[in-house]
Design brief:
This protein is α/β, with parallel strands linked by helices and 266 residues long. It has ten helices and five strands, in the order ααααβααβαβαβαβα.
């Protein structure tokens, strides 16, 4: 139920959808001669779209998420399992063309491969099913497996978890598999996604070593106007808002312990 509710909510709440719905509702109100409400809704829709598309608000929102965890400053003495969360491949295209078609989160695959080569005794656990509201295509773990086998990784090093549909299920399903895989666990996912991921893995009793990738901000952006990259700005705003809303929803429903999970005290 939580999975379905979250998907439906985001279909309506993402910036482009919200702006469209506000403008549409404003137009309908104007047709019904509710001028004040109509004008307010139209202006609100334009403000949502304008701020997300033509300002740095998305980078300001995503920066604190990306800066929450840092990679270890020194090489790790031991790695038992490298866990990579899904989200790095385009499911429909990959399934139809039987190739691992990468998304903008493809850093997850590249860095996991680098870690696998740096720690040749570590298992590589690929966690990701079909995260669509209407399930379609192969699990992301299968697509990722195709990528790693093509890059020469030995098949017996790969552990597949293809049942999970969201991050909570990633953690739950992975925990079952990790029960039989000893050693420290490195978690590879996008930097903005790491706080929620760490919180959920802690909730199932796994203290991971965060290995953030796929940064969307430089961390130096200030408040300003950006007219050159409206599509990028919209995408960044949407990603950041979804993550902050997800953190709040997981905390309110008791799925994570902290509003913004962070590094444990040393």
């Amino acid at each position: 139920m939580f999975f379905v509710a979250s998907k439906v909510f985001w279909l309506l709440a993402q910036p482009v959808s919200l702006a469209f719905l506000l403008v549409l509702s404003g137009w309908l109100l104007l047709v019904l001669h509710r001028k004040r409400l109509g004008h307010t809704a139209v202006v609100a829709g334009l403000l949502v779209y304008g701020n997300c598309a033509f300002s740095t608000v998305g980078f300001l929102l995503i920066g604190p998420l990306e800066d929450r965890f840092q990679r270890p400053s020194e090489p790790l003495a031991e790695v038992g399992t490298i866990v990579m969360l899904g989200g790095a491949t385009a499911g429909r295209v990959s399934t139809a063309r039987t190739i691992p078609e990468l998304t903008e989160a493809g850093d997850r695959l590249a860095e996991t491969l680098r870690l696998a080569n740096a720690y040749p005794d570590a298992r590589v656990l690929l966690s990701g099913g079909v995260g669509l509201l209407i399930a379609e295509g192969e699990p992301e773990a299968i697509t990722a497996q195709r990528f790693f086998l093509g890059m020469g990784l030995a098949p017996d090093r790969l552990v597949l978890e293809g049942a999970s549909r969201n991050t909570e299920e990633n953690a739950e399903q992975t925990a079952r598999l990790l029960a039989n895989l000893p050693g420290p666990v490195v978690l590879v996912t996008s930097a903005f996604h790491m706080p929620r991921s760490v919180g959920l893995f802690r909730a199932v009793g796994i203290d991971v070593i965060p290995w953030p990738v796929d940064y969307r901000s430089s961390g130096t952006e200030g408040v300003g106007i950006d007219l050159a990259n409206p599509i990028l700005n919209l995408n960044t705003s949407g990603v950041a808002l979804r993550e902050w809303i997800g953190l709040a929803a997981y905390k309110i429903t008791g799925r994570i312990a902290d509003w913004l999970p962070g590094p444990l005290p040393s």
